[in-house]
Amino acid sequence: METKSSTTAFSADVPVPKLHDKRNYAEWAIRVRTYLKSRDLWEDIINVGKNAATSGQEDDEDAINVPIRRNYMALHAIQMSCGPDAFSEIRTVCSAHTAWQTLKKKYDKGNIDNSYLNFADLYKAVLRGNRAAAEEFLDSQPEAVRKAITDKGETALHIAVTAGHDGIVKELVDRMTKEDLGIEDGDGCTALMKAVEYGRSELARYLYFRTPLKDLAPAEKDKKGAMLLTRALYSRNLELALDLIWTYPRLTYVLDDRGESPFLALASMRHAFQSGNRLSFWKQWIYSRISIDQSARSTYETPLNNPNDVENGRQRNILVTRQSGATIEIYMNIPNVENGLQRNQVTMLGSVPALVVLLRVLVSAIFRDYLLGPAKSIVSNWLGIQQLYEMKKIHIQSEELLSCMCKEIPKISQTRQLTSGGVYDAINRAVKNGIFEFVSTTISEDPRFLEMEDTDSRNIFMLAVLYRHAKIFSLVNGHDMKNPLTSNKDRSDNNLLHMAGMVNDSTRLNRSSGTALQMQRELQWFKEVEGIVNPNIKENTNKDGLTPRQLFTKNHEDMMEKGEKWMKDTASSCTVVGALIVTIMFAVAFTIPGGNDQTKGYPIFLKKKLFMLFIISDALSLFSSSISVLMFLGILTSRYAEEDFLKSLPKKMVIGLSNLFLSIATMMITFSAALLIMLHDQLPVAIPLICLIGVPAVIFVKIQFPILKDMFMSTYFPAIGR
């Protein structure tokens, strides 16, 4: 008879903390044990192998009896409560008892070791940067340099690196062996990893070249290299990452302690690539003209304890200045003096040549340090040149990293390795993040990735449409393998055109100005995808019985309502301004400056050029404002169907706003001409008044111009399909 406990349901949401390392094992074990006892599953842990599945039974549903099911329930509870590192230890285990004993052997350290309390003085000295006190303690207890001095298993070197005390770090390293540099804390991190994680780039360089390379090599269950590489990527220490990937290319797909490969980490760094940054026109112009030399891209040298170089009898002193993280080196060649003499040396300090040379050097130094240097710094900060330089350097280094990693991927022949190494996940994440360079490089290296599918059976083409990445869409659309990709379906029977009808949370709609432009962009995507799929796909239904067009209409109802409201609000505001200008300009035509000649009826200033400018600009302002009012009225009375958002409404808005800006400009010209005619002898008064009155008009144009620009570019030069 089957007992009640044997059929106890198990919730996947285990109410226990994740097991990460030995520090929280004791608490984890107590809570998991209590949970298993409450489900009557603890006996399956105690009874050694009683309920373990035999080989070949794992996939045989008929062979899974009640005891085996209970074993799997207990095993599932343990697995669900494990962190990535702990789960990797029991990934292939089929017995709950074996899984429990494996984790206990690795993480249960028995009684808590409180020996670190003996090094409290050393901890305080290192943390506060008191080098003298730290040296005194280490002189009395030399072995303390490699002992854990905190409850987290951190050594003095870990603390010094975290606090950023360069001098103490150098002193500790001098007292340690190379093997000591590989000591891990409770989280499995070395001092080098801490330096990278906390952004201590100089300390990271210093420690990196003193750490044995064999400690970073890819090895079974040794994740040091992958841990260092992923942390270097996320902290943007790409120089270290490049050097490490050049040394050990296989680290590309090795998982770190968080279950993440460096390749997957790189795919998460959208802003590390040019496609992940949107620059204004002038910043894009500056960016394109910045040159990154080869040495700045690929050299990685240790900066600490860097002695002066001696080259060909000359000593090179290096003056280093820091600006926004960039290093600018100014070299000063100082001649060596041998026996008090040197060829071409001026020995008479009191002579005129010596004074002239000294004066020239002083003037040059003053000009460079106090005039030229600050001026360059001000201009650089104002234009953002230094930030753009650093950005471009990161972009180039990221592409170089990507290139090195992609060369390693074709060496993986098995699909299982590609999956476990995070390669498939990395490409999916790159598509989701819109990293064009990442997708382009991986596809060119191995076109089979085009057929790769995510967990929802969606290929790259479908993901590019779903997340609205035009450049990736164009890349795949121009590939020879695009035709088979257009007919694929996901798990819900959605095809490529269905993807265009969905509105995903990650869809980049907020880049458009106004909801109406968002709706226009969505329609452009749907039309573009509709033009490349087979005609029969247009009428295919998904599991909800919806065709792509029906799905589009359903998902965009709210957007259409908001777009209609946005259009009407904008048109209403601009109509008021346009009608006001029409009224003013019509009245101005009959109230000309200076009045008319009482005998002939002609304007008194008829023969003046400024008067002709006044009349012409008045007529243009009246004409353009009338057109703008008519266009805005057309928008207000539109039927607001889906197709109207594609061309009709945007064109009316572009024409209306363009003419409104023209009417404002010509109105200001009319006002200026009239003022100059009447105050032609009082220019010091007229010119400031003209400038002052023009401020409100300029503010209005500045506020509305981005809408016109975005609407014009989206309507006449859409980015999709280009």
Q: Could you characterize the architecture of this molecule?
A:
The chain contains 31 helices and 3 strands. It has a 3-stranded antiparallel beta sheet with strand order 1-2-3, with no helix packed on it. By secondary structure, it is mainly α. Among the domains are: 5-107, no CATH class; 115-215, Serine Threonine Protein Phosphatase 5, Tetratricopeptide repeat (Alpha Horseshoe); 563-716. The longest helix is centred in the last third of the chain and has 34 residues, at 683-716. Helix 10 packs antiparallel against helix 11 (201-208), helix 18 runs parallel beside helix 21 and helix 29 runs antiparallel to helix 30 (648-678). This is PGG domain-containing protein. The chain crosses the membrane at residues 346-367, 570-590, 610-636, 657-679, 685-703. ANK repeats lie at residues 152-175.
Number of helices: 31
Main pleated-sheet profile = 3 strands, antiparallel
DSSP strand content: under 5%
Average pLDDT reading: 80
Beta strand count = 3
C-alpha termini separation: 70 Å
SSE class: mainly alpha
Give, in spatial order, the strands making up the sheet with the most strands: 1-2-3
- Low-confidence segments, given as residue ranges, are 1-14, 49-58, 302-351
As a whole number of angstroms, the C-alpha radius of gyration is 36 Å
Assign an overall shape. Answer: extended
Q: Helix proportion of residues, in percent?
A: 55-70%
Transmembrane segments: 346-367, 570-590, 610-636, 657-679, 685-703
Domain PGG: 564-677
InterPro entries: Ankyrin_rpt, Ankyrin_rpt-contain_sf, PGG_dom
Pfam family, one: PGG
